[in-house]
Design a protein that fits this description.
The chain has about 270 residues and is α/β, with parallel strands linked by helices. It contains nine helices and seven strands, in the order H-H-E-H-H-E-H-E-E-E-H-H-E-H-E-H. The protein has helices spanning about 5-20, 25-45, 70-75, 115-130, 150-160, 180-185, 190-195, 210-220, 255-270, and strands at about 60, 135-140, 165-170, 175, 180, 200-205, 225-230. The mean pLDDT is about 95.
Length: about 270
Amino acid sequence: MDLKAKATQIRAQVLNMIYTAGTGHIGGDFSETDILVALYYKYLNCGPKMVENPERDRFVLSKGHCVEALYCILADKGFIPQEELATYSQFGSKYIGHPNNKVNGIEMNSGSLGHGLALGVGMALAGRMDKRSYKTYVLMGDGELAEGSVWEAAMAAAHYKLNNLIAIVDRNGLQISGTTEQVMAHGDLAGRFSAFGWNVIELEDGNDMGQICAGIEAAQAYEAGPTVIIAHTTKGKGCPSIENNVAWHHKVPTDTQYEAMQIELKAGEQHE
């Protein structure tokens, strides 16, 4: 499968969902899409027929406000009907603005930032206790790393040497009120995780599919404890008109912007 082309397809669907619903976190959706595509189409041992299988890999979207890309992938993979995505954010729909475990394929409700890693630690520890072979993956935003609960979970993961836990940080450098370094500076993020006892893999371009795949494979092979992949991504990746613009953390395109963004996504696909 052409993972780059699939990522472009998912971004186009996310754009349509957010434009139609009139709500969504398009910037963070676009920065995480390549990571989610790599996980779901190449590495995660899960599928529509495995949702009750105790050996399935677990995935937690800790940055749950960027759920639209996950919904699109779950529909594309057959977990949920494509046509149900048209109800996104409508009254009574189970497809709400954060992951909802009423949706097939979603393990846990998330989006209260800073909690996803703790959930992942629990899942990984349970897998070890039950002698299961699955791995647990947690995708976090860099803004949520200001939450103390992240670092409590990081200590626990290292203490228990959870080599079945892989965390990924979508390090796009922006959050709702500015840059992460202005709001709550991370500084040497790799050094911080290393000091907490984690194996650290840093991706210079966290939207490059080759780097993402190499990082995931290296993380899967590490056996001494938990691994974090710090992926330096671009907020709004795929549409140059919104890239690295904090205003697009939570913003709905106008008719003109929507048409322009469709053209940008198509142009990017042609250059892949």
